[in-house]
Design goal:
single chain; about 260 residues; alpha/beta; 5-stranded mixed β-sheet
Length: about 260
């Protein structure tokens, strides 16, 4: 058994797949360096991320898979499943060993798990595209925090870059401690050092634009005014807007109670 240790990046993972094939390793396991535990009975191989090697693997997969199949593989990586490396390597072995459409072979547990994970990721993606709420800061930047179960920030970035192309914004993932900053033209990754305070809370009032609180109050008043109590169906509402997303919604913070009961407003 050879343990291939990579840096945790998607390019590093594809490079590790290349190295497995390059060394003709029949028994191999790919492990992120930060999760590796020494094993006296396995050989250790350090993987140096190489874009050329990663691109060769990706181009090989492009010849085998549809756009949806490729998307599911990337979603598998973003899912942060503890077995994602094992699943991806097993899938690559299957795909490169045959001319058949492996991604449609749902009788395979590997293919089925990857497809199911892809559905979960894209469901999360669509919800965050709908439920992200921005707060305008004093410098004019629009800022939002998210705390998704999966690392969906790379998936939702194109949506916001297109929809809010004329604004400067930051969406920050508080769980993974990185964000995406859009300056009106380009997107880049950013990281903040929260040494004190609660990083999952909204920006402090003094850092917000002067009229931000007024706009939030106006939105809550509007939301309350269009509500029709006689037609309220909390069960259906929770199906469309699960409770775990309520913390992102401006209209929920003041008027909605927690999921255990109480008044809606």
């Amino acid at each position: 058994m050879i343990h291939f240790l990579y840096d945790g990046s998607f390019e590093g993972l594809l490079t590790a797949v290349f190295d497995v094939y390059d060394r003709k390793a029949a028994e191999a396991q790919i492990i992120a360096q930060d999760r590796y535990q020494s094993d006296a009975f396995a050989e250790r191989a350090e993987v140096v991320t190489d874009d050329n090697k990663a691109n060769r693997v990706w181009r090989g997969l492009q010849k085998k898979l549809s756009v949806g199949g490729l998307s599911n593989l990337f979603s598998l990586y973003l899912s942060e499943r503890p077995d994602r490396e094992d699943l991806l390597l097993a899938f690559c072995r299957m795909a490169f060993a045959t001319d058949e459409k492996v991604e449609e072979n749902f009788s395979s547990p590997v293919v089925l798990q990857i497809a199911q994970t892809g559905k979960q990721l894209h469901r999360e993606k669509h919800r965050f595209e709908a439920f992200v709420r921005f707060v305008q800061l004093a410098d004019g930047t629009y800022f939002a925090t998210i705390d998704p179960d999966f690392d969906v920030l790379p998936l939702i970035t194109p949506h916001f870059a297109d929809r809010y192309a004329g604004q400067i914004w930051i969406i920050y993932d508080t769980r993974r401690r990185y964000g995406i900053h859009y300056d009106g033209q380009t997107v880049q990754e950013v990281r903040f050092d929260f040494r004190s305070g609660n990083q999952q809370s909204l920006p402090a009032a003094e850092t917000q634009a002067p009229a931000e609180e007024l706009y939030q109050q106006l939105w809550r008043v509007y939301f309350r005014s269009v509500n029709i109590p006689a037609r309220r169906n909390l069960k259906l509402h929770r199906q469309h807007v699960p409770v775990r997303y309520w913390k992102y919604l401006t209209e929920k913070r003041s008027f909605f109670s927690d999921e255990k009961g109480g008044s809606l407003f």
